[in-house]
Design a protein that fits this description.
Layout (H helix, E strand, L loop, with lengths): L2 H16 L10 E7 L2 E2 L1 H15 L6 E8 L2 E10 L15 E12 L2 E9 L1 H11 L1
Parallel strand pairs: 1-6
Antiparallel strand pairs: 1-2, 3-4, 4-5, 5-6
Length: 132
């Protein structure tokens, strides 16, 4: 798949997440998807995303830096949101937080088959500790 085509698929995937179209997730994510080396499968991946958006209803997946090469998409997502429930081990304070996620996706047949993700938890903790 050409890099430009892969970026279109990825942007459509982000739209699916941002619009909470969970029933369409299988269009973008393979049944046996791996996340940070662990096989979550489509149902586990969906459950993780649903839990994140339940904890943070205003969570929006915004690509700040986006590149594609071969079968891999790399992205720096940037979030500005207000957690309402515990998220990544942090209790909500009612305040807004902003943080990046650096994520790589490996695609096969236009579907995500593997995800490597690093979230800047230190940035979240620092912001929440200032509000307490």
């Amino acid at each position: 798949m050409k890099s430009g085509d892969l970026l279109v698929v990825y942007r459509d995937y982000l739209a699916c997440l941002n619009e909470r179209r969970w029933d369409e997730l299988g269009r973008f994510v393979a049944d046996e998807v791996l996340y940070n080396g662990k096989r979550l499968g489509l149902s586990g991946y969906r459950a993780m995303l649903e839990a994140d958006t339940e904890a943070i209803p205003d969570l929006e997946f915004i690509p700040e830096i986006l590149l594609a090469d071969g079968h891999v998409v790399s992205c720096r997502l940037f979030f500005e949101c207000t957690p309402q429930q515990a998220f990544l081990g942090f209790k909500p304070t009612g305040g807004r937080v902003s943080f990046p996620e650096h994520v790589f996706y490996r695609f096969d047949n236009r579907q995500i088959v593997e995800v490597w993700s690093v979230i800047d938890k230190a940035a979240i903790g620092e912001q929440l500790s200032k509000e307490s």
